[in-house]
From TrEMBL:
Database matches in Pfam families: E1-E2_ATPase (PF00122), Hydrolase (PF00702), PhoLip_ATPase_C (PF16212), PhoLip_ATPase_N (PF16209)
Biased composition (Basic residues): 12-21
Organism ancestry: Eukaryota, Metazoa, Spiralia, Lophotrochozoa, Mollusca
Binding site for Mg(2+): D454, T456, D851, D855
Cofactor section: Mg(2+)
Residues binding ATP, per UniProt: D454, K455, T456, E568, F610, K634, R663, T743, G744, D745, R825, K831, N854, D855
Catalysed reaction, written as an equation: ATP + H2O + phospholipidSide 1 = ADP + phosphate + phospholipidSide 2
Membrane spanning stretches: 141-161, 167-186, 369-388, 394-414, 912-932, 938-960, 990-1010, 1016-1037, 1044-1063, 1078-1096
Organism encoding this protein: Littorina saxatilis
Name recorded for this polypeptide: Phospholipid-transporting ATPase
Amino acid sequence: MSGTNPFASSKNRLRVKRRSRPYTAGSDDEDYDEDCLDTIPLMCGDSFEMDDENDRLVKERRRRRSQYRSIGYFLSEGWINLCTGCFCKLFSKCRRNRALKPRTVYIGMARGAPEKHPRNVIRNQKYSIISFIPKVLFDQFSIFLNLYFLVMALSQLIPAVRVGYLYTYWAPLGFVLFVTMVREAIDDWRRYRRDKEANSQMYRRLTRDGFNKVPSSDIQVGDLILVDKNQRVPADMVFLRTTEQNGTCFVRTDQMDGETDWKLRLAVQTTQRLPNNVDILDITANVYAEKPQKDIYNFVGTFTRTDGSTVEDSLSVENTLWANTVVASGTALGVVVYTGCETRSVMNTSQPHSKIGTVDLEINTLTKLLFSAVIILSLLMMILKGFGGPWYRYLFRFILLFSYIIPISLRVNLDMGKAWYSWVIQRDKDMPGTTVRTTTIPEELGRITYLLSDKTGTLTQNEMIFKKLHLGTVSYSTDTADEIMSHLKTAYSQQQQGSTPSATPTRASGPVRRTVVTRVFEAVRAIALCHNVTPVYEEGANGDVANSPEADQHSQQLVSYQASSPDEVALVAWTESVGLTLLSRDLSSMQLRTPTGVCVNYTILQVFPFTSEAKRMGIILKEEETGEIIFYLKGADAVMQTIVQYNDWLEEECGNMAREGLRTLVVAKKVLTEEQYQDFESRYNQAKLSLQDRSARVQGVVESLEREMELLCMTGVEDRLQDNVRPTLELLRNAGIKVWMLTGDKLETAICIAKSSKLVSRTHDVHVLNRVTDRGQAHLELNALRRKNDAALVISGDSLQVCLKYYEHEFVELACLCPAVVVCRCSPTQKADIVKLLKSHTGKRTCAIGDGGNDVSMIQAADAGVGIVGKEGKQASLAADFSITQFSHLGRLLLVHGRNSYKRSASLSQFVIHRGLIITTMQVVFCSIFYFASVNLFPGFLIVGYATVYTMYPVFSLVLDKDVSPEIAMTYPELYKDLTKGRSLSFKTFFIWVLISIYQGGIIMYGALLLFEEEFIHVVSITFSALILTELLMVGLTVRTWHWLMVVAQIFSLGVYIASLAFFKDYFDSAFLQTWDFIWKVLVITCVSCIPLYVLKYLRKRFSPPVYSKLTP
């Protein structure tokens, strides 16, 4: 590229930096073109700010890199990460993971060198018996808060620095560790039981002695395993034989790729032609399989038989049975090629990890800040006291005295609060069947910015329903099916009487205007014939079925349709409902039963399957009775408009159906003469034998037929949505949550569901990113996306991979600006990678929701994973943090329970910190007045009582508080936007509580000393009593909505304290407590410490009320 770049002068454009990569040989021109790409600016903004108003304590991940080199980071948690990294590297070196490589599996009489392969076991456990205690302790003490308490507790074993009783330090720490260990043990035991159930499933293995039953865990590479109908495939296998006569079977892959379409699998022809299964043991053959990899859509292998003449068959993904798929028809015999961790399903599943909530990270940050305050206060006291004598001992005693600033009850209260939130979620009557499987992160539900959703089974019900048939001048729906049945009976009755309604008469002047009967007949027959559907019959209860004619047998049996597309199943099921039934189909023939009971046979001459590039499928049939050859074609309206004859209604009606959320297909036909077909067949076979550009030549020959075809009809099929999906998505959108749909389905299907579910609103354009394969195409497409304003993005998984390879940051920036993003043809690993990408680039909280096994990796990678118990099983539900029964429950889960959990945890944690700050302030004042003596102000028992029985219940009752009612939270979802900014627990709110604590602690301590008269024990009585009353009143100041249990907690705690005054005579002077002197001093000090705060709260509520104060449901 030469000359001046027209975009170079733009100040807001970003110059693309070239990524370093290994040099590859190529022409100078190609290298020059690559260099030129680096000089073309990708039109992105200079910054990547997602939200200006952010008060969160945890920095965004992309801004935290600089702190990794700081000394503070190393002293706080860097040394832990360093030790962990060194241990993992050492462990990996010792373990020496075996490199993945291709293998040859021998069958029958063939023999080869033995190879070691992993066991075929499923293991989702996090611990073993040996590693349980070390791992749990390591995880717990990697948190700064717990490590701090451990050091403080260990220091009390040294008599010289002991400042209290051992139980005041060890009991709370032991309680926290015990609760954590019990919770982790229960969760891991449940995982062990699920793994054991899966590993102990029995299968039949073919041996010389017949079939032997073996558990799934004992299956090895090279075993011949027979899988029955509706049984899960235990390992990755090559498909050798089936009981189906045509050598094919269908498998359900919903747990693998999320698609409920049944996939057709082909048995190896060499083994399928053997008389029976046992004969496989007498042949000499081998299977070559590529090295294990994640790609579930491709497979490269060969089957070679060497006894006699060598026969070699190429193997593709159509000859495989992947683990975790389910055989849907007949039985399948296969040879195992991959086991255990080398199977496709395991390689596409990420290992679960412990999730830590944002609130816990923010508390950890505040803990470090408080620890710094303890060190500074202790050093200040030593400076004022002087460094004479054993100063280090005094310094450590000061650190211990001020350690109450970080109360260990904080962890206890937060863990108990999380358990309470989880219990409330499960007891919500508006969300029946909801289960909380991870009780450590309920607050994350109140901080979600991105929701990543699966399509099939999550937004939809996996039910395709035929809705509309349009013939141009007349339209039929399910309500008018009786008219179609009447027209079909009329047409077939005329055909039996000698008339031929199926013919296509022509005149010299142009086409004949057809009657409605003929047009309906042609359209319905085309729908019944143009597909890849195979009927599968199950014998009914009638025992005389076998003695009946074949057509009668079919009428007395239960039928289910199998196809690679649910749309085709819905269309064929509809033709059956109007009287034209598909009786049978194999590779070369098809049979229909007409409404008059006559069976019509067709010979299948050619089938052109659907591809994402062609966006259409076709079939050439020959009716055996009349000899008529017909070419049927159906596909997307955008493609078919250029193929069919001119018309004035197709484009308009397609738009109307799309607005109704229907998936449209245009159906056309062309009658061929015998000579025309023979000419086509000759050219078609010749194109298939060409060695160069085979696919292009084959497509060109097929396209020679696709000209001036007769438009028959247009169909509309509805993929039924889950209940209340549209209002739920609108609710989430209004709450500021951006929804991304990640699906393994086709592009057209994904766009249709995005529109019908209102994921993409009517005001938004849809920008489909064209398929890209290299850096230059990705550059151009991203520039085109940048020019789109407020357009939803639709991209395929392959194109996404290319864009992320070269322009990761730029793509994420552009995608995050889109109102919605749809990723189609997305593998399970890609789903998880997208979640991690959003987390690392934006620093926002993500939530993933799905219902299939292919969604597990995405669910586990997200900050909050939600699983739906659906038709695809419970795998996603069991792996998720939260399990719900309907997608519509997600709105209440986030907006109500997420809000309450976050707000309550923020209030609870800050109040517990305030409780420690105020008593530390009093201790500092006491030490500074009494000549910097490192002695306790209150005895150890009073300190323990202060944090437990005296204030625990009122403080913990804050978990019942709520700022708005559930009705208001659901009516005004915009309130949720404020939660993502982290303002409820921020440095601002923290320092406000610090100031309140310093003020109240100083007032209580200086007030008591000012009113001090005789004995020191009176100071303890006054200050401690005022402290208890202040804390109880501060709980009332914090509460926004009173609950009757809060009042009970306040009265109970006050009563317990008053009762304890009469029993602890060693700590209190009972005679002084009965005097008015004690009472008025305590009341005055308490009023001075609390009344100004109540006045400030009233003024703020009066002149600066919260936004939700005037809202009504």
